Amino acid sequence: MNNLGSPAEEASRIALEEVFACIQAGRSFRLEAGAGAGKTYSLVEALKYLTKRHERDFSRRGQQIACITFTNVAKDEIEARTDRHPIIYCNTNHAFCWLLIGGFQKQLKALVQQMPSWQDKLLEAGGIGNRGVEYSLGHRGVREHVLSLHHDDVIPLTISLMENQKFRKIMADRFPIILIDEYQDTDKAWVEALKLRFLGQPNSPLFGFFGDHWQKIYGNGCGELNDDAVTPIGKKANFRSVNAIVECLNRMRPELPQFVRDPAEPGRVRIFHTNGWGGERQGGQHWGGDLPSNVAHQALEATKAKMVADGWDLAPSQTKILMLTHRVLASEQGYSNLAQAFQYNDSYLKKENRLIAFLVDVLEPATDAYAGKRYGAMFEALGGTVPVLKRQADKAAWTASFDKLMTLRNNGSVGDVVDHLMASQRPRLPDRVEELQHELAAFDVDGGVDMPRPLAELQKLRPVAYAEIKALRRYLDGHSPFETKHGVKGAEFENVLVVLGRGWNQYNFGEMLELAGGAAVPANKLAAFERNRNLFYVACSRPKRRLTLLFTQEISPGGLAKLQQWFGADSIEELAL
Questions:
Q1: Residue 320 to residue 88: CA distance in whole angstroms
Q2: Would you state the torsion angle of the CA atoms of residues 210, 213, 217, 219, taken in this order, to the nearest 10 degrees?
Q3: Which is nearest to 11 in space by CA: 27, 29, 33?
Q4: Strands 177-181 and 65-69
Q5: pLDDT for the residue numbered 286
Q6: What one-character DSSP code corresponds to residue 576?
Q7: In the prediction, which pLDDT does 485 show?
Q8: What is the rounded CA–CA span in Å between residue 77 and residue 204?
Q9: In the prediction, which pLDDT does 482 show?
């Protein structure tokens, strides 16, 4: 249907008029746009409105409107939708900060020398000397004529320079208007510096903050922004979900009620819990109260059968399964033994373990290229340096090594692959990975000393079938009907099945529901509550038409009561297992 004049369209129009009124009055503002509200549309419309107002005077004075994005993907989308207008500077926060500070070489050199993270490197290099400061690859390093900043250096350096009045004047003169996309996920210290140095101060830029603090799911983001100098605007529209889902979101978040495009469009919400299962549940701080993995799998299959009977198309193009419990996800994806080798999920999911990072990000792309006879791409994946192959024997050695590697990837263990690479040195493992292998081999298990965690995890990882590395890579690359929190923000799907359980050290959705049902959240639990509530809200707000929640962890009576309040008692069923 044509959505002109629909409830959602009317709510969107009102919010945009409030944005324009703030711009006309020179007041900074915050557009709070809930899930599905069309935040990016409002941001783009604000940019178009501003370019019409300032095209001539900004061009004449060499000024621009800064639009700061959280990702390069968002940057590309906004640039495309604003026809890359020359008075709009659109880029990520790090790129914007470097644009501001890159010319202040003298001040940067002085500040870098004061940063603890640079002390050892500069001492080893004999001081900063006449080196310049650059920011390109985002890795910290000292070369003959230049030192390269790490990503983590750029924002703190900008905050330090913002203490300088001259710097602030140059920034305000160059960018009289600054719009910040996904403000809630923007670095907290950076936003606090903006509040301290600019908001409410004379001759400061006009700031527009676009986002939703209920969708903050990154740890160092600022969350909700409140300041007397910033006018709050609520965008009370939802162009994504049908009314059956939006009504639940509104009960969850009554302070920002949303209106849908078509109130008559059909949809359904169903909630399944497993409280009736009579077996012994898992224990431990992170897993307490959850189903055993095999029973959780049965619960997922039983729920999917009910969804099919309800008319769902479970094809990945139509349905996304959001797994907010890692052990079930690992089991479904085929890397459960790999997951059990590590104490922390981030070791493999964020590739904090160096061996996992090498196998997933380097070796697997290289073997793909070898299988396709793309040898240049193979060496590029291995680091970009093509070895000198002077003799036929050199080429034969690389071929023999990769042929054996291809066999071990299919039939061997992680340890088999690692041992082969250590023996052949084609390709070489990272130095630290090799060192850990030697340390594990030399460790005296009878010496009465506990094995360090890195060695203990390596010992558990070595016998795991290498096929699980390939399965992990498929999941991390997005070739999967499953997702976790890392892939869902900003996405939308026809149908969504959310599986909620334990296994994340920072998430306990049962406790979140119980706290939500209380009179007030205790101060010492507020941060954890908001982290859990936000991820729950993000997951529940992804579907267009159908939403199903499956709780594999036991839910308390208070938690069930809160579910009934948010989703309606008729939507909640006990799953028979």
A1: 36
A2: 100
A3: 33
A4: parallel
A5: 78
A6: P
A7: 46
A8: 28
A9: 47
- Per-residue confidence (pLDDT) for residue 320, from 0 to 100: 87
Successive 10-residue mean pLDDT values, the chain, 577 residues: 74 97 98 95 97 96 96 89 96 94 95 91 88 82 87 94 96 98 95 96 96 87 94 97 98 97 96 96 86 90 95 89 71 80 82 91 92 88 67 87 94 96 91 91 88 93 95 73 48 88 84 94 94 93 96 96 97 95
Tell me how far CA of residue 442 lies from CA of 140, 153, 428, 437, 554, in angstroms: 32, 38, 21, 9, 44
User: Which residues are bridge partners to 500 per DSSP?
Assistant: 324, 551
The Cα–Cα gap between 497 and 262 comes to: 23
Classify residue 27 as exposed, middle or buried by CB count within 10 Å of its CB (0-12, 13-18, 19+): middle
Tokens at 441, concatenated: 């081999």
* Domain 7-92+176-244 annotated CATH 3.40.50.300: yes
Nearest-angstrom CA–CA distance, 196 and 352 = 35
Give the Cα separation of 39 and 15 in Å (integer): 10
Say what the alpha-carbon torsion angle 114, 119, 122, 127 is, to the nearest 10 degrees: 50
The domain defined by 267-337+481-574 carries CATH number 3.40.50: yes
Q: What is the 3-state secondary structure (H, E, C) of 107-151?
A: HHHHHHCCCHHHHHHHHHCCCCCCCEEECCCCCCEECCCEEECCH
Which 8-state DSSP code applies to residue 281?
P
- What does the domain layout of the chain look like in residue ranges? 7-92+176-244, 102-154, 267-337+481-574, 346-463
Q: How many Cα neighbours within 13 Å face the side chain of 437?
A: 19
Q: Are 290 and 510 in contact (CB under 8 A)?
A: no
DSSP at 204: P
190 with 155: CB under 8 angstroms?
yes
pLDDT at 2: 44
Sign of the torsion formed by the C-alpha atoms of 510, 516, 518 and 524: positive
Nearest to 228 by CA among 414, 21, 28, 420: 28
Cβ burial 181-193 (10 Å sphere, 16+ → b, else e): bbbbbbbeebbeb
Per-residue confidence (pLDDT) for residue 1, from 0 to 100: 38
- Whether the predicted model's global pTM rises above the 0.90 cut: no
**Fold match flag (7-92+176-244 vs 267-337+481-574):** yes
Cα dist from 516 to 35, 355, 548, 560, 561, whole Å: 20, 41, 20, 11, 10
Separation between Cα atoms, residue 160 and residue 148, nearest integer Å: 18
pLDDT score of 217: 75
In angstroms, the Cα distances linking 367 to 70, 407, 410, 427 are 33, 11, 12, 11
